[in-house]
């Protein structure tokens, strides 16, 4: 009724209504309604909620400050007249992405050094993730002291255009036997069960986010592999301290042992050696339905494609990368080699075998480490495309990238678009359930209820001023 008083010339009904109100109420109703910046009704989009509500056509959702307060079909969601209205007709909305495996700080363009690990560089990586619709990122091991400090600072006072920054801290590995340089010296080097327990206790004191990262990998015989009694002690101590554990382990024999030792999840799929999942592994996964696998297919992306991936030509890549950086994404092998590798089919077969036993998939892309490159943000989109190429449905890839990864990281306010959740979502120009490559047709990104200033970020990175978007 207040809207009627404001918008239309007075009719008998309105005059009657006004007469029934107090004088003060009617005069305030007649004054122009000041839209509230902290209350916004988004209307008209196809909404992929990723929760029990499914996909809602011609949806509406109301956001108050940083929180989604109502979700439904247009007309069912009630908003006061002072709510700001945003018309999203023709658009598709999905929850923002949760990247469960990245490494911030070490990359700066083509440069990959420990000297790059600065506050400014980590913030730049966070901006790049936000630009591409990432709401939270787990820096999965190899953190340095400055990273902990910045995590603490951002947790206390979040800054715009950055996702939630989580860290697994340093992680632990054999002395000088962890990740490839320049991350190599960051983890705790441990070679006895007692050292492993002490490292876990220190990580607890540093208030790492949820996971102790454990490297079990001999790097093709180049380094000594972490022994079973050492990682078993680390897992047991982590659980005693209320923490979970995730591992970098590729060889199937090691995967079986570390699963039996109680690991909570795999930071990569278990098939560097190309071994097919055997019955014993399948049985282990069946026994442990909460065991998860973060599909970092990105690092073996070119083994999935028997042809040039369509994303090489994607306009989104050209928004933040140089032609030389994009060219580095191409398969360095000849097309014949690519086809031969694909026909081996190790990666798609592995994904489908894990899917068949109902393994819970999360999304990671290892961006910032050796294989992940400098492709912060965009790599998560290419990861989703790779998941579908390897045999997941678009809906399964979206679930891995949003709801599942939020659950894996224990982020109860992220991963779906639903009442009570943080208002973190991506507005797309096309439907990713039709074609997963549409996740890259980004019209806008909202984090904690605020639009990410993508035009300003793009201008900063490219030096070019462009139309807003
Ligand atoms: Zn990694």
Strand order of the largest sheet: 3-2-7-20-21-22
Query: What's the CATH first level of the largest domain?
Result: Alpha Beta
Gross geometry: globular
Q: Which cofactors or ions or other ligands sit in this model? A: zinc ion
Name the CATH architecture of the largest domain. Alpha-Beta Barrel
The domain tally reads 2
CATH homologous superfamily identity of the largest domain: Metal-dependent hydrolases
Here the CATH topology of the largest domain equals: TIM Barrel
**Helical segment count:** 16
Helix-strand category? alpha/beta
Describe the structure.
- The protein has 469 residues and is an alpha/beta fold.
- The chain folds into 2 domains: 33 residues, no CATH class; 319 residues, Metal-dependent hydrolases (TIM Barrel, Alpha-Beta Barrel).
- 34% of the residues lie in helices and 20% in strands.
- It has 16 helices and 22 strands.
- A 6-stranded mixed sheet has the order 3-2-7-20-21-22, with no helix packed on it.
- β17, α9 and β18 form a beta-alpha-beta unit.
- α8 packs parallel to α9 and α14 crosses α15.
- The protein binds zinc ion.
- The site of zinc ion has 5 residues, from loops.
How is the secondary structure organized here?
Elements: H1 2-7, H2 12-20, H3 23-30, E1 36-43, E2 46-48, E3 55-56, E4 59-64, E5 67-73, E6 83-87, E7 92-95, E8 97-102, E9 107-108, E10 111-112, H4 119-131, E11 134-139, H5 145-156, E12 164-167, E13 172-173, E14 188-189, H6 193-205, E15 211-216, H7 228-240, E16 244-249, H8 252-260, E17 265-266, H9 279-287, E18 292-295, H10 315-320, H11 323-327, H12 335-344, H13 346-356, E19 360-363, H14 378-389, H15 394-408, E20 425-428, E21 442-447, E22 450-451, H16 454-462
Parallel strand pairs: 1-6, 2-7, 8-11, 11-12, 13-14, 15-16, 16-17, 17-18, 18-19
Antiparallel strand pairs: 1-4, 2-3, 4-5, 7-20, 9-10, 20-21, 21-22
Helix pairs in contact: 6-7, 8-9, 14-15
Zinc ion (ZN) binds next to loops.
């Amino acid at each position: 009724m207040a809207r009627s008083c404001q918008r239309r010339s007075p009719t008998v009904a309105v005059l009657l209504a006004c007469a029934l109100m107090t004088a003060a109420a009617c005069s305030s109703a007649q004054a122009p309604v000041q839209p509230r910046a902290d209350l916004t009704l988004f209307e008209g989009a196809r909404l992929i909620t990723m929760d029990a509500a499914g996909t809602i056509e011609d949806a509406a959702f109301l956001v108050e400050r940083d929180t989604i307060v109502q979700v439904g079909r247009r007309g069912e969601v009630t908003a006061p007249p002072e709510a700001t209205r945003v018309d999203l007709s023709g658009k598709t909305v999905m929850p923002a992405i949760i990247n469960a495996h990245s490494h911030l700080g070490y990359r700066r363009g083509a440069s990959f050094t420990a000297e790059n690990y600065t506050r400014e560089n980590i913030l730049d990586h966070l901006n790049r993730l936000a630009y591409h619709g990432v709401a939270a990122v787990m820096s999965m091991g190899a953190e340095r002291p400055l990273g902990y400090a910045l995590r603490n600072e951002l947790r206390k006072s979040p800054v715009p255009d950055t996702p939630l920054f989580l860290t697994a801290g340093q992680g632990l590995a054999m002395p000088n036997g962890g990740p490839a340089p320049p991350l190599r010296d960051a983890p705790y080097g441990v070679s006895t069960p007692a050292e492993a327990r002490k490292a876990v206790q220190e990580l607890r004191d540093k208030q790492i986010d949820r996971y102790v990262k454990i490297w079990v990998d001999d790097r093709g015989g180049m380094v000594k592999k972490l022994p079973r009694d050492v990682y078993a002690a680390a897992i047991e101590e982590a659980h005693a301290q209320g923490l979970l554990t995730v591992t970098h382990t590729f060889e199937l024999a090691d995967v079986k042992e570390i699963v039996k030792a109680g690991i909570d999840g795999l930071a990569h799929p278990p098939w560097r050696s190309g071994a097919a999942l055997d019955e014993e592994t399948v049985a282990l996964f069946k026994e442990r339905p909460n065991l998860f696998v973060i599909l970092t297919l990105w690092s073996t992306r070119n083994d999935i494609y028997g042809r040039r991936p369509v994303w090489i030509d994607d306009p989104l890549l050209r928004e933040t990368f140089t032609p030389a950086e994009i060219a580095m994404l191409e398969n360095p092998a000849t097309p014949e080699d690519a086809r031969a590798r694909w026909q081996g089919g190790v990666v798609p077969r592995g994904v489908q075998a894990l899917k068949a036993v109902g393994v819970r998939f999360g999304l990671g892309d290892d961006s910032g480490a050796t294989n992940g490159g400098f492709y912060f943000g965009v790599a998560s989109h290419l990861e989703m495309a790779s998941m579908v190429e390897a045999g997941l449905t678009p809906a399964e890839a979206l679930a891995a990238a949003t709801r599942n990864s939020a659950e894996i990281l224990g982020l109860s306010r992220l991963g779906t678009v639903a009442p009570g959740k943080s208002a973190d979502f991506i507005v797309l120009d096309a439907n990713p359930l039709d074609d997963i490559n549409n996740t890259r047709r980004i019209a806008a990104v909202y984090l904690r209820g605020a639009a990410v200033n993508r035009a300003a970020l793009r201008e900063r990175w490219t030096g070019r001023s462009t139309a807003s978007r």
